[in-house]
Amino acid sequence: MQPDYTEQDTEAARLRERSLSSPVPAPWTAPGGYPAAPTVRNRNNTLAIGLIAVGALLVIGRFGLNTEAFTAGMILLTIASCFLFFAFAQRVFGLLIPGSILAGLAIGVPFADLTNGTSVLWGLALGFFGIAVLGRSLFRVNSTWAMAPSVILFGVGVIVLLANLPAFLSAGLVWLPLLLIAAGLYLGWGRRAVR
């Protein structure tokens, strides 16, 4: 007389055999044989969003929002996004070059008044750095030529920042709002899930 095995019994036996023969541990299963959902550490996103909002309000309140520079940055970002979209969609490396440079300018232009032009130089440096990194990783193009202007622009930006350092630090607690925004981003989205 043969014992009556169900398909569930057979599947459970196969799972046990695979878990014993493979070096990879078997997934956690909840009662009933379903995979258990990973536990996620409870993030305090309310506190994170609050810190980001307070930091942003302090930045806007301290320095005022230069709407013309912000608008110029948004226009540059719109043009850059067109170049970058077609660069990634059609896999054309040549479109990555103007897209990255314009995106770097879009980051630096809104903060030009605050940093006495240093942010524009560093934004351009970031754009050229993006050409080198994205070209190598996504397009398999070794464009080390882009590192030369990136390093030069970053160095000139450091010189401009050091020349204007007393005026930059005399604005008061410049770094407190930025630290609040960074802490909010870390608390809200910086930590990884725990099993």
Topology:
Elements: H1 7-21, H2 45-63, H3 67-90, H4 93-108, H5 112-115, H6 118-137, H7 147-163, H8 165-169, H9 175-190
Helix pairs in contact: 2-9, 3-4, 4-6, 6-7
Commentary on this structure:
The chain is an all-alpha fold and 195 residues long. It has two domains: 1-37, no CATH class; 45-190, no CATH class. The chain is 70% helix and 0% strand. It has helices at 7-21, 45-63, 67-90, 93-108, 112-115, 118-137, 147-163, 165-169, 175-190. Helix 2 packs antiparallel against helix 9 and helix 4 (93-108) runs antiparallel to helix 6 (118-137). The longest helix has 24 residues, at 67-90. It is extended and about 90 Å long.
Shape: extended
Any idea how many domains? 2
Structural class: mainly alpha
Rg (C-alpha, Å): 26 Å
Calculate the terminal CA-CA distance, rounded to whole Å.
45 Å
Query: What proportion of the residues form beta strands (DSSP E)?
Result: under 5%
Percent of residues in helical segments? Answer: 55-70%
- What kind of oligomer do you see? single chain
| Biggest beta-sheet profile | none
| Helix count from the secondary structure assignment | 9
Mean pLDDT: 79
What is the H/E order? HHHHHHHHH
Structure summary, number of beta strands: 0
Unreliably modeled segments: none
